[in-house]
């Protein structure tokens, strides 16, 4: 099988998608470890793209390079046509552990990105309160992180990222540490956020089902040195409502298809 082929099982790829983020010929080596090789990928504006691939294939590395937290060995990242040289206000990283301040309330934590940017207290608390509501945490403004469940802490991290109004949200396996019910609820909420916020989401996950459920575009990465093997756009069942996606025949077919292409790497 030609692994470099771009698959379009549901709908043709737009002729010229408007990209918020482009990675061009990115390579990254850590000493002797070649993590990424010549990886080029477009991230359409206002959509959610998942990076999916076997463990250790370089998904987090790519996300950190896009965030400007890590320099590629070669290649460039562009955000809105401008080359990335470091972290910037156009991108917000939602960390796996969310990096919340344990001594600060939910409100202050959610406002923390704005505080770092010097936004006045009243304005930042207003904006933080709006996003605390948006992520379903109304009533917890004055709680502390240790009083929250893992899923709620994740929502605080997401509220913080939304409050700074970055155009690009980078999420590294945000749902890996929560129970299945919380995870499903969060996936539904994420779908609504993508629709309502018109931001570009780049999302790392290990879960094929999760990627197909939440993504407009899935980039399947091959194991080290990682390249993109396929781009899948599971758009056919999008308008059918969050409750119907998991039993949609197209959803199930795409999950099977991705599993078929990844299984050889885990056997
Ligand atoms: N700081 C580092 N120094 C040396 N090697 C590293 C470093 N960070 C990552 N690597 C290696 O680079 C490869 C890619 O790592 P990365 O964390 O990006 O993969 P991943 O796809 O996100 O993995 P996982 O799905 O398990 O989180 C791995 O082999 C990893 O061991």
Automatic annotation (TrEMBL):
This is NitT/TauT family transport system ATP-binding protein. Keywords: ATP-binding, Nucleotide-binding, Transport. Belongs to the ABC transporter superfamily. Pfam families: ABC_tran. It comes from the Bacteria. InterPro entries: AAA+_ATPase, ABC_transporter-like_ATP-bd, ABC_transporter-like_CS, ABC_transporter_ATP-bind, P-loop_NTPase. PANTHER family: ALIPHATIC SULFONATES IMPORT ATP-BINDING PROTEIN SSUB, TAURINE IMPORT ATP-BINDING PROTEIN-RELATED. Residues 21-248 form the ABC transporter domain. GO terms for molecular function: ATP binding; ATP hydrolysis activity. The lineage of its organism: Bacteria, Pseudomonadati, Pseudomonadota, Alphaproteobacteria, Rhodobacterales.
């Amino acid at each position: 099988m030609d692994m470099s082929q771009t698959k379009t099982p549901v709908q043709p790829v737009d002729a010229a998608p408007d990209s918020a983020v482009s990675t061009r010929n990115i390579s990254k080596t850590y000493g002797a470890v070649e993590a990424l090789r010549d990886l080029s990928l477009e991230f359409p504006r206002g959509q959610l793209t998942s990076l999916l691939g076997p463990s250790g294939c370089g998904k987090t590395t790519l996300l950190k390079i896009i965030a400007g937290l890590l320099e590629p060995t070669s290649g460039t990242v562009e955000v809105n046509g401008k080359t990335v040289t470091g972290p910037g206000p156009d991108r917000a990283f939602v960390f796996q552990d969310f990096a919340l301040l344990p001594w600060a309330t939910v409100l202050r934590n959610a406002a923390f990105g704005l505080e770092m940017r010097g936004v006045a207290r009243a304005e930042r608390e207003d904006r933080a309160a709006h996003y605390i509501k948006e992520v379903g945490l109304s009533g917890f403004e004055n709680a502390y992180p240790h009083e929250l469940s893992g899923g709620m802490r994740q929502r605080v991290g997401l509220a913080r990222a939304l409050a700074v109004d970055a155009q690009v949200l980078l999420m590294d396996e945000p749902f890996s540490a929560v129970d299945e019910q919380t995870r499903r609820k969060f996936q539904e909420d994420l779908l609504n956020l993508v629709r309502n916020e018109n931001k570009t989401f780049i999302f790392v996950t290990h879960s094929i089902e999760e990627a197909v459920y939440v993504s407009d575009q899935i980039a399947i990465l091959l194991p080290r040195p990682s390249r993109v093997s396929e781009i899948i756009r599971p758009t056919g069942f999008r308008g059918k409502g969050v409750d119907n996606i998991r039993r949609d025949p197209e959803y199930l077919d795409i999950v099977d298809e991705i599993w078929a292409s990844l299984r050889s790497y885990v056997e």
